[in-house]
Amino acid sequence: MEILDTVSLKPYNTFGIEQYARHFTKAASVEELKEALLWAKKKEQPTLIIGGGSNILLTGDYNGLVIKNELQGYQVVSDDDDFVTIKVAAGEIWHQFVLHCLKHQYAGVENLALIPGCVGASPMQNIGAYGVEIKEVFCELTAVHRLDHTTKVFSKEECSFGYRESVFKNSYKDQFVITDVTYRLQKKPVFHIEYGAIRQELDRLNVTELSINAIAQAVINIRSSKLPDPAEIGNAGSFFKNPSVEQSQYLSLKKAWPDMMAYENADGTMKLAAGWLIEHAGLKGYRKGDAGIHEKQALVLVNYGNASGRELLEVCNLVTDTVFRKYGVQLHPEVNVI
């Protein structure tokens, strides 16, 4: 393990924000991860764990040790006629894992194609898209405690999954480092094409026989058309969660804005489309200096070049304030502000 001093984090966050880590290292094994955590404990340094850097907004230099999780590898835990269970190292790129599943015809994650980031972030965020969430294929995960360096296995129930939430964003926030995640995938697929955008794209592709590959391609096409490539323009994908409101508030909003988009949750509340709220608040395409809101997708904050994290945070606050004043609905960032 090599500890470097004063390292730029620009290559390690998809916003392309130029901030510095006081100390920086990469962990390619659980042993190196524990060694780095022990070093930080001895030096009384806080730690920040990063994977793909696709879900963070850096608003200042990090005065501690940044550890880049580079754990790699796949392991088939069990395999029968109906299911395959695979343990995946946390540093693996999420989309590469999806492609691996498509290659072997393992179903369950095709709707989650092209989501940026690493495998370790998937349960932390309970990532989801187009009617599917990671909790539906999640089996268990392994994590290392940051202070005593013990290893713990978390079951699905212990993760307390919610909408873009888990125990690791709440009561266990900053207490554990996820080292691997185990998924249970289907060999006899159940297709999820409830979202109109997927149906339309499948029709456009002239798909006559459904398959997980066709659905994944449709999702890839949709995401590519709506979301900017971080290699071309700095962003972290969808910046805000879709807010949920009570039926009574939704009916009141629907009366004022008849074309407002919403989906009913299992608990009877209504999930509003944050992108619709932002766009109809007049903020789509907003720009101040190099910080702004994408012209094609109002959910996405973008760095047009040399925006600072604080400038992007100002745009975030403008969005939340404007949406609340207009609709009485509070938006919350999906991205972790650091």
Which structural class do you get from the secondary structure elements? alpha+beta
Q: Describe the main β-sheet briefly.
A: 5 strands, antiparallel
Net shape: globular
The count of DSSP E runs of length 2 or more, i.e. the number of strands, is 20
pLDDT under 50 segments (min length 5)?
Answer: none
Please give the CATH class of the largest domain.
Alpha Beta
Which architecture of the largest domain would the CATH scheme give at its second level?
2-Layer Sandwich
> Whole-number radius of gyration?
20 Å
The share of residues in helices is 25-40%
**Secondary-structure element series:** EEHEEEEEHHEEEEHEHHEEHEEHEEEHE
Averaged pLDDT: 95
How many helical elements? 9
User: What is the rounded distance between the termini?
Assistant: 25 Å
How many structural domains are formed by the residues?
3
CATH topology of the largest domain: Uridine Diphospho-n-acetylenolpyruvylglucosamine Reductase, domain 3
How much of the residues is beta strand, in percent? 25-35%
* Widest sheet: strand ordering: 6-7-12-10-11
Subcellular location: Cytoplasm
Protein name: UDP-N-acetylenolpyruvoylglucosamine reductase
Pathway: Cell wall biogenesis; peptidoglycan biosynthesis
Function: Cell wall formation.
In short:
This protein is about 30% helix and about 25% strand. It has about 350 residues and is of the alpha+beta class. It folds into 3 domains: about 5-70, Uridine Diphospho-n-acetylenolpyruvylglucosamine Reductase, domain 2 (2-Layer Sandwich); about 75-185, Uridine Diphospho-n-acetylenolpyruvylglucosamine Reductase, domain 3, CATH 3.30.465.10; about 235-335, Alpha-Beta Complex (Uridine Diphospho-n-acetylenolpyruvylglucosamine Reductase, domain 1), CATH 3.90.78.
